[in-house]
From TrEMBL:
Residues 670-950 form the Protein kinase domain. This is non-specific serine/threonine protein kinase. GO terms for molecular function: ATP binding; protein serine/threonine kinase activity; receptor serine/threonine kinase binding. ATP binds at K698. Keywords: ATP-binding, Cell membrane, Glycoprotein, Kinase, Leucine-rich repeat, Membrane, Nucleotide-binding, Receptor, Repeat, Serine/threonine-protein kinase, Transferase, Transmembrane, Transmembrane helix. The chain crosses the membrane at residues 596-619. It catalyses: L-threonyl-[protein] + ATP = O-phospho-L-threonyl-[protein] + ADP + H(+); L-seryl-[protein] + ATP = O-phospho-L-seryl-[protein] + ADP + H(+). GO terms for cellular component: plasma membrane. It holds the Pfam family Pkinase. Its EC number is 2.7.11.1. It is found in: Cell membrane. InterPro entries: Kinase-like_dom_sf, Leu-rich_rpt, Leu-rich_rpt_typical-subtyp, LRR_dom_sf, Plant_LRR-RLKs, Prot_kinase_dom, Protein_kinase_ATP_BS, Ser/Thr_kinase_AS.
Amino acid sequence: MSSSSCLRCVSQNHAIQRGPEGEGHTKKEEIFHAKLLALDEPLANGLSGPFPASDGGFPAIEVVNISFNSFDGAHPAFPAAANLTSLDISGNNFSGGINSSALCLGPVEVLRFSGNGFSGEIPSGLSRCKALAELSLDGNDLSGNIPGDLYTLPRLTRLSLQENQLTGNLGNDLGNLSQLVQLDLSYNRFSGSIPDVFGWMKRLECLNLASNRFHGELPASLSSCQMLRVISLRNNSLSGEIAINFKLLQNLNTFDTGTNNLSGTIPSGIALCTELKTLNLARNKLVGEIPENFKDLRSLSYLSLTGNDFKSLSSALQVLQHLPNLTSLVLTRNFRGGEKMPVDGNHGINGFKSMQVLVLANCLLTGVIPPWLQGLESLNVLDISWNKLNGNIPPWLGKLTNLFYIDLSNNSFTGELPMSFTQMRSLISSNGSSEQSPTEDLPLFIKKNSTGKGLQYNQVSSFPPSLILSNNLLVGPIWSSFGHLVKLHVLDLSWNNFSGPIPDELSNMSSLEMLNLGHNNLNGTIPSSLTKLNFLSKFDVSYNNLTGDVPTGGQFSTFTNEDFEGNSALCLLRNSSCSEKAPFVEAAYRKKSKGVLAALGLGTAVGVVSFLFCAYVIVSRIVHSRMQEPNPKAVANAEDSESSNSCLVLLFQNNKEISIEDILKSTNNFDQAYIVGCGGFGLVYKSTLPDGRRVAIKRLSGDYSQIEREFQAEVETLSRAQHDNLVLLQGYCKVGNDRLLIYSYMENGSLDYWLHERADSGMLLDWRKRLWIAQGAARGLAYLHMSCDPHILHRDIKSSNILLDENFEAHLADFGLARLICAYETHVTTDVVGTLGYIPPEYGQSPVATYKGDIYSFGIVLLELLTGRRPVDMCRPKGTRDVVSWVLQMKEEGRETEVFHPSIHHKENESQLIRVLEIACLCVTAAPKSRPTSQQLVAWLDDIAEDSVLEQPEVSGGFNLLA
């Protein structure tokens, strides 16, 4: 099909070219005089602005497909479109209400409005579209009830209303839609019981009512829908027994009723669904044993029974081992009646050849690690934490070829750590391990070796490659050969009895993000080579017998005193030698018993089930670069060794003239005492210039000598980005091989500091200020995305890149260090960057940064403001470590008000908190097209603030960052 016969918009003026004659037309009234033909891909992807209208009507239009552009304004009207059969405007930024009056003039069969910002109610009048076969309104902000006349559409086969704010009950009229093949009403606020009218829907293949507020029993008439492939009723309040006749559902592929209040036993009839691949019955009130005939589920790939009250793990494993395609088995928080871990012998367990994920956490099992596990050759993830297992850890466990995540924590294992754990094949080579194929039912996001620089994983789920052995009774040394594990991200050996020195070879674990060796009997010094671990964000050696100096530089500048306390002979080195300083002062701290920790950590029961809810893939490099301390003499003498323009201070926007001598003098030759921050691209120094101005000087890491001209041109362009909610770039300077960027100084530092570092942040950063900060940051982002010329993707939105002035006005920082978007290719840019916890899930599948990626990161910041939590905290129990999974899970359980930080959660502002939480959840939805635009964020946040007549917080004189 020739694209010249289609509607084609070119340039920002929306000029239209019409073929096949190839005649050019720019008059908007002539745009639609050609017959439009649908394409397999959207037209002219990347267009923006209001959609052009015409006064002449569109009598010839049959098919319109302008999906996945950036059009905004009201949805386009098509007067006199008597021949229109298909309208696809999904994936744009249209807003306002939907007007159906002009849509049903002809034989319309398809209406796709998904992924926009439409609000208000679903309009009545759609009943006039007698030929309508597909209605897709998902991913908007629609509210109210489903209009009654929608149930009268005789030919409707697909109805997609998910991810809106729809409410009310589903009436019996739903049964009138007898031709439905797909019905998706998930992620709304429907309530009442599910009407038992499915006996009329003989063609129904997919039913998704997940994440609503339905109660009552499962409708028995579902048994009549013999074509059903998917039933998803997860996260509601359904009760009663699972009373469905599965014998008639021979095509069923997925049955998901997780997180309800279902009771009774598992019906044996489920085993008659021989095509079943996914079965999720987690978090209900089911009892009994796994039915014997479950061995007939030969296609089953994923099974989760977490959080019920099942008995007899031994019989369950004997049944399930016969399932040849079972790849994921999650049985957390069952079998808690004092059962023993089944071993070989009388139990006869020798199956599970395809198993990739096995979770038996928090079952209070006794016994030892069973030998039958060594037959699980495909195993990737093993979690048997929070049990009562004992004995030695068998060496064969470290020899399982594909294993990359082991959690044996909170048991009573003894003996030395097997040397085989230092030789795990999946954790040794960055290029050598075989890639794992993701299963259909458990989304393991893959990052291939060839995808690009800085990507950390080639086989990983939402949990990073980890060895978690904390809270046991292990002894002996920490092997130096751990340094071979270059792909390991988390090593937690805390709360054991390890002894000896910390091996210098640990510095070879180049991907390490968390190293916890606290509460052992280690001695010697902390190897200074550990400063080479550029990605290390959590480090703890507290309560050992360490001596000497704490290393400086690299990530060690970000660790707190608590990470080193409990070592009486350990010294924090600042500007003098350890011998000149007093020994390390231990913080007041009382060691907690293992039993207390167990009580505090029960949240880890969620385990790997969060695979289903978390689309986070940590795929980008963490940008906390290690900087060497500057050589003052080398900097001061730069003028002598370089050309005259090497120390040129290039100033923007008519700033007063300053010299390199002024900069060096104001920072005492970049003395460490003047450092006020360590950003992703270098250290930041505070400077007071001779005229009294205070500026922040970012000293960039990296070598730009080969692209000096391009670099200077780029910063000149960035200096033109002028907005009240941006940190303004005032100047640029090249000193020898150093590049200095001169920014406006922000009196109150970063939002990250106020949320996560200040002990009194809850008192000083109240809800009014937090909402004010969110508004300002949204305005700055909207300017970058929509108003700046050329448009700019930030690509590293995070709380530490939101700086606060003396009035707590938010200013986006570091936007100038993201790649500029080409004026003619403003919809994407490559070379993804980002920071752990803020990276959207789609970046794990394609190295392409987008506007929607920025929106995801902004949503994480909103969650930080609401909860007070960091995006990722590896010290929290599993299931609560990343804030997104935790918040979504709490919402699914109807406990969203429990996620708010106590200091801001008050009755008078709860409605505002809930509304902002809804916005945050829209931002972090896994589907990029369903996320709002930055302009929508501004409008929504301003609307919430206006409801309480919010005024700018009055902060007399501001707060001093260093106070």
